[in-house]
What we know:
Blueprint: H1 8-14, E1 19-27, E2 30-37, E3 51-66, E4 69-82, E5 91-93, H2 107-118, H3 124-131, H4 135-150, E6 161-170, E7 179-186, E8 191-197, H5 201-211, H6 213-217, E9 221-224, H7 228-237, E10 242-245, H8 247-270, H9 279-282, H10 296-309, H11 314-329, H12 334-351, H13 354-365, H14 367-375, H15 382-397, H16 404-415
Parallel strand pairs: 2-4, 6-9, 9-10
Antiparallel strand pairs: 1-2, 3-4, 4-5, 6-7, 7-8
Helix pairs in contact: 2-3, 2-4, 3-4, 5-7, 8-11, 8-13, 11-12, 12-13, 15-16
Amino acid sequence: MPVIQGSRGATVLVGMDGFVVGAQEVIDGELWLFVETTTDVTGCPSCGTRAVGHGRSRTAVRDLPVAGRPTVLAWSKRRWRCSDPDCPMGTWSEATGEIAPRAVLTERARRRLAEMVNIDGAPIAAAAAVFGVGWHTANQAVADHTDCHIDDEGRLDGVRAIGVDEKRFLNATPTRRTVFTTQIVDLDHNRLLDVIEGRSRDVLDRWLAHRGDDWCHQIRLATLDPSAGYRAALEQHLPQATLVVDHFHAIRLANRAIDECRRRVQNHTLGHRGHKRDPLYRARRVLLTGYERLTPERFEWMQSLLATGDPDGEVSACFIAKELLRDVFAAADEAHARRRMITFYLWCADAETPELTRLAGTVSRWAEQIFAYHTSGGASNGRVENTHMLAEKTRRTAHGFTNPTNYRRRLLGRYGIKWHTQPTARIRGRQPRFIA
Length: 436
């Protein structure tokens, strides 16, 4: 493509104040715009004396694509020299806020790259490939445009209800155990507040202490899984908050008791782990299904398997205990739930099954937090689990993380910050019903 001298239209298209496009050319499929500043007169930054020209140097930086074509700005950068021989300044290069010194991307390109990661959800490697830069360059651009928003204390204003739960960060390897993080979610606005490395009382305690007493006293509701460490930290720092055990995690305790009892009975009766033709192994999924979701045929099939593989009825007792605990959450109000909880306790005591004894003991320690499910209007960790699902999607898209700082930045930039984006208006509205 021939070089076009003095392209005014290209200057307007670039839209960078203080720059003019002198020529444009397509090189290897990329659009190269040869630009320079319009500054003709400048003063010495040291003494203020009028500077004189001292040659030029060319700097190539990536810019936003033009009509989908990768674009490079070849900036013919002026060098200046102080005319005062006594001035220690000597020579210097002109600078602009649009292009940082020694940068390979313009500032607006770095901002767009960060938006591709934080708003569009693209992995850093994919965003870096769009602009033809390395991963570390792209990651630094994301950090520069995201960390200032993460560190803004005003981001956590207006929070009244939080959900706390653990999330796996790194899978176990032969030399390392599974690494977990603690995620805190704003339940009212479905927004991720923070990601903390670890899942103990200490990590949550330090995070709440850093927020301060004024912030903690504003929290009126906190949901959690049955974790003693989380509970101790929340009770210490959130004296005004109502703690609610998530019903999903509570029922999961009962499902775990069913699995443990089924494996124990399996080994006791047959002397080996479950095989695909063993009755208890075949019933493992249906035992975890809610009673109302079972068809009569499916329920009879489950009973026939239990009659064969559960001679003492221990697994059946665990299944009934799970349904009784589900009835506690399905109660009409708190008083009704307390009556149903008594039925649950009596059944576990009469069953004389070790798994149900442990389950009843755990439930009794969290009974008040379970009853708070009704007083809080059915609060749950559903939005926390939704955030976990989105975080796992981000982790898989990025092919995993190993750096907790990058992991936290990616999740908060994607799900913890409300970015102001320009809405796209419809070109055509609703068609008129009648056309004259």
